[in-house]
Write a sequence for this structure.
């Protein structure tokens, strides 16, 4: 171990903020972050709510604080707070102590090694919670403050590019939806087209694995990892260990839409080979390449998602049948119009797919570098 690196306990580097407050003590429009707003394994905030909507005790946090989900810590829900607000008491609020860089501490807590340790020290079976007292005793080589800054800069640059791609994709999808609306909803010409249903343009759930046909392993997508057009994570299973719902065969060009709690926006356009989806998805496969963008944008329009949510029945798990999805009414333009629309929308959707692929590569690089940097196996410092 070098002169500028020494073993330090996590508890000597980090402070747990315990500034809790009652619901009546917080202005209703104060930003609120719950576990549901932090994606698994993604190190960014996907959404947030408001304090007035949550009638429970909360913890105050400041911008740049580290928020770590202590409930079922193996989900690796950890972010840097982008603003002041309050959060669930199932989230640790953490600040760096003296001689520790806050962003370096964030990456320490984001490392799979830290998450594994937090999981090992958790209490409870069904709803395990990480214990601060346990994780505080963990030791790790910690470099000098200047090297901490540089490590954080290197890893942060990768995350900044991932975030830039995410924002760019949101803009590109908004552009595609705006063109869709202009052509097929607001256009006077559209009023002259006949009304059809999605089944005229796509097949429903066309392929499924059986125990005889299944490969030795599958790369699996679940509803919980698919949000508003983005597949946030895939998990590779051997077939014998795969969830029983891992059955839908997915092909590039397919649109998938979650049929359980459809208002949650568990939908995406499949753009790469080799994926397997949950049976909780309705899979729509376009009958023509020219239908791909139209089928995706029509199926997942705001109006359709709201309509599916309205039709969902069941108390604990409100759901719709896949047949309802495929029978959705649509404007049925002539094929030549759909082909022209595809020439405009396809480059936008292809760029989204390219950005997603780049972000997956960058995230894999970050996650490969992170533990080696944290353990001091790779040393970097400003020149």
């Amino acid at each position: 171990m070098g002169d500028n690196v020494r073993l330090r306990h996590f508890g000597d580097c980090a402070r747990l903020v315990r500034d809790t407050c009652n619901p009546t003590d917080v202005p209703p429009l104060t930003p609120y972050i719950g576990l549901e707003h932090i994606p698994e394994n993604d190190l960014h905030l996907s959404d947030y709510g408001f304090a007035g909507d949550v009638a429970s005790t909360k913890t105050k946090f400041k911008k740049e604080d580290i928020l770590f989900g202590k409930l079922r810590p193996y989900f690796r829900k950890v972010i840097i707070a982008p603003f002041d607000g309050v959060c669930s008491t199932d989230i640790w609020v953490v600040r760096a102590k003296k001689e520790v860089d806050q962003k370096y501490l964030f990456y320490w807590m984001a490392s799979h090694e830290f998450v594994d340790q937090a999981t090992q020290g958790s209490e409870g079976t069904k709803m395990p919670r990480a214990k601060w007292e346990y994780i505080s005793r963990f030791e790790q080589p910690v470099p000098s403050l200047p090297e901490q800054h540089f490590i954080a800069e290197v890893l942060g640059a990768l995350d900044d590019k991932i975030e830039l791609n995410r924002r760019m994709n949101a803009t590109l999808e908004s552009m595609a939806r705006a063109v869709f609306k202009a052509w097929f909803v607001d256009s006077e010409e559209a009023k002259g087209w006949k009304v059809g249903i999605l089944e005229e343009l796509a097949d429903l759930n066309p392929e499924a694995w059986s125990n005889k046909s299944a490969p030795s392993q599958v790369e699996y997508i679940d509803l919980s990892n698919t949000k508003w057009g983005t597949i946030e994570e895939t998990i590779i299973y051997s077939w014998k260990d795969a969830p029983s719902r891992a059955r839908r065969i997915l092909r590039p060009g397919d649109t998938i839409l979650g049929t359980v709690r459809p208002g949650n926006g568990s939908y995406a356009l499949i753009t790469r080979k080799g994926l397997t989806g949950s049976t909780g998805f309705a899979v729509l496969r376009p009958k023509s390449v020219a239908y791909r963008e139209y089928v995706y944008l029509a199926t997942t329009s705001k109006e359709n998602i709201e309509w599916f949510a309205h039709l969902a029945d069941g108390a604990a798990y409100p759901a719709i049948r896949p047949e309802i999805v495929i029978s959705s009414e649509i404007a049925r333009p002539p094929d030549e119009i759909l082909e022209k629309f595809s020439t405009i929308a396809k480059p936008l959707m292809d760029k989204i797919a390219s950005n997603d692929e780049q972000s997956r590569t960058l995230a894999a690089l970050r996650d490969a570098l992170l533990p080696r940097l944290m353990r001091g196996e790779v040393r970097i410092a400003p020149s």
